[in-house]
Amino acid sequence: MDKGDYTIEGVSLGMDSSQVRAQLGNPDAVYKVADTTGRDAPFCSWMYKDLQIMYGTSSSVEGIAALGPHVSTVRGLRVGDTKLRAQELYGNGHKEVDLSSVWDYFEADSKPMRGVGISFEEDTVEVIYLGRMQK
């Protein structure tokens, strides 16, 4: 994993909301989510067609989720692709979670920890998450 892996539709981790708005336009919906990390700060998600942009306490992008087939990762993975396609694009260096319905790829020595999480429904990619993660 490298810095280039954390971009979808021109939005990258660390961008601020004005940069995201310039790239994607106004969001279709905005959700504020209660903090569950103990930092006592709300999180905010901007929703677009097939895409969720998550902001953290720093008001910068901390996570990006592909939720539908109209967007892809820089490596070309899309919702609806097969596990085989995910393995071809991201390799075997994943940690399987929840009986292999989730594959997590971590960036070595990143602080904070970040990576790519791929969720499957049977053998089909259901959600692709890029951003802050916990091992």
Protein architecture, described:
The chain is mostly beta strands. It has one domain: CAP (Pathogenesis-related Protein p14a). Helix content is 12%, strand content 38%. It is built from two helices and ten strands; from the N terminus they run E-E-H-E-E-E-E-H-E-E-E-E. It has helices spanning 17-24, 83-90, and strands at 7-8, 11-12, 29-33, 43-48, 51-55, 61-66, 95-97, 102-106, 114-121, 124-132. The strands form two sheets. An eight-stranded antiparallel β-sheet has the order 3-4-5-6-10-9-8-7, covered by helices on one side. Strands 1-2 form a two-stranded antiparallel ribbon. The longest helix has 8 residues, at 17-24. It is globular, with a radius of gyration of 14 Å. The mean pLDDT is 85.
What is the fourth-level CATH superfamily? CAP
Using the coordinates shown, work out and report the CATH topology.
Pathogenesis-related Protein p14a
Oligomer kind: single chain
Percent of residues in helices: 10-25%
Tell how many strands the DSSP assignment holds. Answer: 10
Give me the secondary-structure category. Answer: mainly beta
**From the coordinates shown, what is the CATH architecture?**
3-Layer(aba) Sandwich
CATH class: Alpha Beta
Taking the alpha carbons of the first and last residues, their distance comes to: 15 Å
Instruction: Kindly estimate the percentage of residues that lie in beta strands according to DSSP.
Output: 35-45%
User: Main sheet?
Assistant: 8 strands, antiparallel
Number of domains: 1
Number of alpha- plus pi-helical segments: 2
What is the chain-wise order of helices and strands?
EEHEEEEHEEEE
- Tell me, briefly, the overall form: globular
Look at the structure and give the mean pLDDT. Answer: 85
Low-confidence stretches: none
